C-alpha cells in the first residue's frame, strides 16, 4: 500500500479531479444560453467533489468533520450525475460520454461511501 501524505495521493481525489476536468472541457461546448445555468451548475458541482475531498483530508483528525466533508463530496458527485443527465437529454453530450462520466461518478461515490463507513481507517 502506498503512503498517503496529502489529498493528492488519494485515488478518489485523483479520479474526481480528472472527472471534473473532463466535465469542464465538455461544458465549453454547451450553448451560450446555458452559461449561467447548466454550465455553471455542472462545473461547480464537479469541482466541489475534489474540493470537499481535500477539505475532508485536512479534517481527518476529527472523524465527524471528516465524514461530513466526505458526505458533502458524495452529494456533489450525485448532483453532477443529475447535471450529466440533463446535458444528455438536452443533447449537449453524446450517450457514450454520458455513460463514461456517469459510471466514473458512480465509482467515486462508491469510494467515498467506503471511506465514510470506516473513518477510523483514515484518522490521524
Task: Annotate the secondary structure layout.
Blueprint: H1 11-27, H2 38-58, H3 63-89, H4 95-117
Helix pairs in contact: 1-2, 1-4, 2-3, 3-4
Which features would summarize this protein structure in a list?
single chain; 124 residues; mainly alpha; de novo design (two linked rop proteins); 4 helices; 0% strand
What does this structure look like?
71% of the residues lie in helices and 0% in strands. It has 124 residues and is an all-alpha fold. It has a single domain (7-121), classed as 23S rRNA-intervening sequence (de novo design (two linked rop proteins), Up-down Bundle), CATH 1.20.1440.
> Nearest-angstrom radius of gyration?
15 Å
Average pLDDT for all residues: 96
Any idea what the CATH superfamily is called?
Answer: 23S rRNA-intervening sequence
Q: Which fold does the CATH topology refer to? A: de novo design (two linked rop proteins)
Mind summarizing the main beta sheet? none
Short structural summary:
71% of the residues lie in helices and 0% in strands. The protein is built from 4 helices and no strands.
Amino acid at each position: 500500500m502506498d503512503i498517503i501524505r496529502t489529498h493528492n495521493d488519494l485515488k478518489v481525489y485523483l479520479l474526481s479531479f480528472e472527472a471534473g476536468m473532463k466535465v469542464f472541457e465538455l461544458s465549453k461546448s454547451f450553448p451560450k444560453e446555458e452559461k449561467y445555468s447548466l454550465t455553471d451548475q455542472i462545473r461547480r458541482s464537479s469541482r466541489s467533489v475534489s474540493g470537499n475531498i481535500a477539505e475532508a483530508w485536512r479534517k481527518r483528525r476529527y472523524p465527524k468533520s471528516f465524514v461530513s466533508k466526505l458526505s458533502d463530496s458524495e452529494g456533489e458527485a450525485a448532483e453532477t450525475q443529475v447535471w450529466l443527465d440533463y446535458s444528455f437529454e438536452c443533447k449537449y453530450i453524446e450517450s457514450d460520454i454520458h455513460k463514461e462520466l456517469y459510471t466514473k461518478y458512480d465509482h467515486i461515490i462508491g469510494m467515498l461511501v467506503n471511506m465514510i463507513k470506516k473513518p477510523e481507517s483514515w484518522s490521524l
